[in-house]
Input
Amino acid sequence: MGSGMPHYRPPTRSDIAQIDRTGRRILECVGVRILDSTYLDILRKAGARVDCDEQRVRFDGDLLDKVLTRAPSRFTLYSRDGKNDLQLGEGGVYFANGGRVFRILDMKTGGYRLTMLRDVANTATLVERLDHIRFYVIACEVHDMPPRNYHLNDFYHAFNRTAKHVMGGCGDVEGARQMHRLASLIAGGEEKLREKPFVSVITNPVSPLTIEMNTLNVLEFCAAHGIPVTCAPAPISGATAPATLAGTLAQMHAEALAGIAIAQILAPGARVIYSAVPMTMDLRRMELALGSVEMAIMNAATVQLGKHYKLPVYASGGITEAKRPDIQAGVEKSISSLTVAMAGADCVRLAAGILDSGNSISYEQFVIDNEIIGIIHRMLAGIKVTEDTLAFDVIEKVGPGGNYIAEDHTVEHMMTEFFYPELSVRHNFDVWEERGRPNMLSRASDVVRSILRENTEGLLDLDLTAEIARTNPGIYSI
Amino acid sequence: MNDFKALSEAISKGDINKAVAETKSALEAGISAQDILNQGLIATMNEVGDRYSKGLIFVPQMLRSAKTMQECTKLLKPYFQEGDVVSKGQVLMGTVRGDLHDIGKNLVSMMLEGAGFTITDLGVDVAPEIFVEKVREVEPDIVGMSALLSTTMPAMADTIEALQKAGLRKKVKIMIGGAPVTERYAQKIGADAYGSDAGSAVTRAKELLGIDRSEE
Ligand code: B12
Output
């Protein structure tokens, strides 16, 4: 996407260099704690300085640079139908919803309940239909099935409802195996999946500066099987990171680089995204503040830090503490999603559906966020200036005092020049009353209802579904 | 009445070095440890708590003051008979099995500590057996469990069951919390209390041990 906007870059170039230097210094002097002796061994053999008693791994600058250059600057997150292949590292900004909440605001009852398998299917259906959300992150925890075959099920119902790229957490390597077996079957073989992975996996280190065994197992499994993977630290300023934004960024940068470096040691060339979720707390009462302006600024800076290493970047926007799709949600989401998009993130995650600091979702919020993202995409597209758009000829033709309503020039450009919101109410007052006083939320509810009514069938074809069911008896239906 | 203005100010500011020095010089000046504790340390912490409740200071400031007070209390210990400077109670804290989230648990621990409880922190991913073992060893008044994943909440029930089996359930009060945890869930699994945030954790803990607010 050719961006007509000046990019938003909160720290200057030299500030970024300084944050980077501090991050590297942290890796060199403080190191990361790795809670597994096998990996400590592997990292020592690769040239890292390992202290087994402390379970600490330190990376010198030379080693870091050597392994980081193995990380690809660009790769594609594939869709299954080719309609939403996302070329990371090419300047495009792609938004996704957020994942793994445990609670949903159910508009039918107006109350909150635990999330179920059908919520995975329904949110995948929504994302499939909402054009501005370009890939699907498995949106919620499933509470109506036993833990066995968990990731077989959540990924299955995601794949069955959207052909867009699917991203999700796997818990442990067994979960990653379940996902991988299923995805290989759908791709028509492991090699085909490796060639065009339409699924990727999220992992997280634990701030400050700790990486746990399960995380490394999943990271290694994905890296080795060509599945794109993230290892996204989520440091919280004032709690698990310093109370200064620069300090949080420096620590986060060290954590993010460590994850990427380790992936490149385990599987050179692995498709890893530079990813992070720097967060803030309201230190008055130590309450999470994921909709804060500082969180938005830090996520923009995250993009700069990843781009400093020419890596595709995955940062976060669109989170809020608001418990309902309300004014706070609208304000916080718009500002942070825009900020991170303007910084030029390849992927903006958590940007749709999320409420309540990442604990809850609402279907309606997916639809509202889709509109916010649409507006942001329009902003990024900027103003096209050509002989034709400058419109001298039609200005001359209409002349003083006329109007442009029925001119060819108007008809030619009206579809592409403007963003047409589906939710914003633009009726005049009387029409608004006649239509029953709609508002953004009531309209979002209408959209949810119509999408879910019209899309009750799965997308996987029948033969494949039968084959999957035959080889995977552990799949539950919704 | 002694003058604890400088000590009080140092505690309010969370200036550990200054507060420790002031405590030492008060002792050297022959002021009784009991007076230093009551009129100096505890009186100041009550003020700090008040200021926090009114929103005048932030959590980190309050915790910093609490830590300062603890350092001063250490100096007074030798002047008391064992049991004289009683801790409000022993709390054994941990994040349950399978769960690595510890920010909330740590915050609760710090607030309890600030309020005068003694904490033994078992860390994260604590299996029921470990809780049992540590309850035997530490003999706490309260066991605090934290879970941030809806999927690890059942480990709280497992832990309670394990304590029951070990014959230890009646010896401790159990308090639970974490974002997905609810009052209802606490009742369902037979915990004694649920705390929605660090402040209410302190209130609940005091209630559990029958510590009256007026006693403070
Ligand atoms: C930070 C964070 C992480 C960090 C944790 C770092 C750390 N050192 O703790 C990292 C990145 C490592 C992480 C990892 C994961 N996380 Co996480 N995480 C969070 C996040 C954003 C904030 C949690 C937090 O620290 N809150 C701030 C503290 C202060 O609040 P609190 O914990 O609620 O505590 C307060 C009260 O609850 C109460 N309290 C807490 N404990 C206790 C105990 C007692 C006794 C009492 C009385 C009170 C009490 O008092 C506290 C103070 O007010 C939450 C979202 C959220 N909004 O909660 C997700 C969240 C909890 N994580 C989630 C998930 C899914 C994961 C992962 C599985 C991610 C993945 N890879 O897919 C892993 C799981 C790892 C594991 N096995 O535990 C989900 C959980 C969904 C669910 N099923 O319940 C959430 C809701 C976010 C999401 N949508 O993904 N996570």
